[in-house]
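Lecture 7 notes: from sequence to structure.
We start with the chain below.
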Amino acid sequence: MHDEVKSAALNPYHMAVQQFELAADKLNLSEDMREILRQPKRELTVNFPVRLDNGRIKTFTGYRVQHNVNRGPAKGGIRYGPDVTLDEVKALAMWMAWKTAVVGIPFGGAKGGVICDPKKMSPAELERLTRRYATEISIIIGPRSDIPAPDVNTNSQVMAWIMDTYSMHEGFSSPAVVTGKPLSIGGSEGRNDATATGVLFVTRQAAKRIGMPLQGARVSIQGFGNAGSIAARLFHNEGCKIVALSDTRGGIYNESGLEPSSVLRHKQEQGSVVGYHRAQAIGVHDALEVPCDILIPAATEGVITATNADRVLARIIAEAANGPTTPEADEILFKKNVVVIPDILANAGGVTVSYFEWVQDIQSFFWNVEEITQKLEVIMNRSFAAVAEKADQYSCNMRLAANMLAISRVAEATQVRGIYP
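Predicted structure tokens for the same chain:
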């Protein structure tokens, strides 16, 4: 029942299509082009058996969706979770197509997911599930066709299993089939921090744009996973004051600032930021509404809505998560002069460094972390400038501007290539 309510209230695919139509209207896209771009190219659903540790067999359902590949191979993460739906995967694949286009890297968009509860599975069960899922989707993934990466509840170990499974089928090692791998098998320096580093670079540009110094700015982060915890560290090092942090169990607030490394140690020991001694307890979603200058939603989609957008006090929202703000909330925030750096720009550092990893694997020649960070900064700054220019040109918010920029690039590639046959 819970899932039905969730999907009726906020279907992520409907939200993605709604955002697409808004941008398509502004761009005066032809109905023919909309027909091509609003639909995913491929949707693969797989049902596969996995032997559990107790000897029983359980069938799992997984998805891999490729939205558009006109600008290059499909690219996108794989998530594991009990709430994964095909519509969620379709929405994320569409967002990936725009994300790679907005930062101008030669990839299309894809996404994958498996309906399972990884928190209730042993490492051995997760490995068997991953290898079987990789085998089922191996018919459409590959270094030149579709390159998966980690996402919610998956990590570099899961990527290593996928890469190994795919390589076993090929008969030779194929490191470029996935990104976000361990360094020992062709992973890239800087990949782990990439999303949060990209968030920092674009937030720096946004702060400059509104004349707000980063030094001393109050930052609230909703979600203290990979992106959230690294963002806390980076912004803290930049001289910002981290005033609130939250995870799935609850949040903590201290107006004079939290020490991210100390909170991270607490989370590693206790499994949550909750109970951290030098802070007051707040609710899971309260981190969105505390007094702050910069808000970083770094958890899941649909958390800033028409209901709470009015209570958001930040001047800049940098979306480290995918789809955290609903279209209705966007309108409210735009009227309040809040600068929302949209997900497809704000968190594109991850896919950009994934692209660097793929390039390094293809050529078997690797760069150091300084080179990677430098290349990333150039791309993020350039992309921010292009989106800001579009926002000024059309007097619209940055999400619409980013979508217009991205969609026009995908449309151009589609137009130039033409329709086969």
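Points to note: Confidence is low (pLDDT under 50) at residues 1-8. The two ends are 45 Å apart (CA to CA).
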